[in-house]
Specification:
Blueprint: E1 2-5, E2 8-14, E3 24-29, H1 38-47, H2 49-58, E4 66-70, E5 78-83, H3 92-109, E6 114-117, H4 129-146, E7 153-158, H5 161-173
Parallel strand pairs: 2-7, 3-5, 3-6, 6-7
Antiparallel strand pairs: 1-2, 4-5
Helix pairs in contact: 1-2, 3-4, 4-5
Length: about 180
């Protein structure tokens, strides 16, 4: 499923984020930028040690922010590490919106044409998937509608069929 915003495409796919051939994939990161489990663990396993080494050199960041590293051995040239909120920590919607927008800004700063997101914060951070879909898709549409950007393709890569269906329902409801 896809939506066109000012000639740019937002698309939804089911699959393995680490297998996408895009300019950047987004890691659902923690504030220490430690590549542990979930999406980050898959990135660490397939991307090799250089990604964690670059994260260690950056040293961490705050919730709602995003930083960029190389993609190591991944098909993607870059990894954008977006720090989403833990559900229940307070002001989660705004923090997730900021993590999404800051990821899009990092991609634009590097003149990238394509970026792929997972459902940030919905794993061990416990964020409700339907809220995540609404916030992340709204942020992506607003960014593409209002900002000057090099991005042409914004992909949301969902691991499960259930997650894909939640994002599809949300995108359809946006008109």
């Amino acid at each position: 499923m896809e939506k066109i915003v000012k000639g740019r495409k937002i698309s939804l796919v089911q699959g393995d984020l680490t297998e996408l051939r895009v300019d950047a994939i987004v890691n659902a990161a923690n504030r220490h930028l430690a590549l542990g489990g979930g999406v980050a663990g898959a990135i660490r396993m397939k991307g090799g040690p250089t990604i964690q080494e670059e994260c260690d050199a950056i040293g961490g960041t705050v919730v709602g922010q995003a930083v960029i590293t190389g993609g190591g051995n991944l098909k993607a040239a870059h990894v954008i590490h977006a720090v989403g909120p833990r559900y229940g920590e307070g002001d989660e919607d705004e923090k997730l919106r900021n993590a999404t927008l800051n990821s899009l800004k990092r991609a634009t700063e590097k003149s990238l044409a394509s970026i792929a997101f997972p459902a940030v914060s919905t794993g061990i951070f416990g964020f409700p998937k339907d809220r995540c879909a609404k916030i992340m898709l709204d942020a992506a549409v607003a960014f593409l509608d209002r900002e000057t950007t090099s991005l042409r393709d914004v992909i949301f890569c969902l691991w499960s069929k259930e997650d894909l269906e939640i994002f599809e329902k949300t995108l359809q409801s946006m008109g």
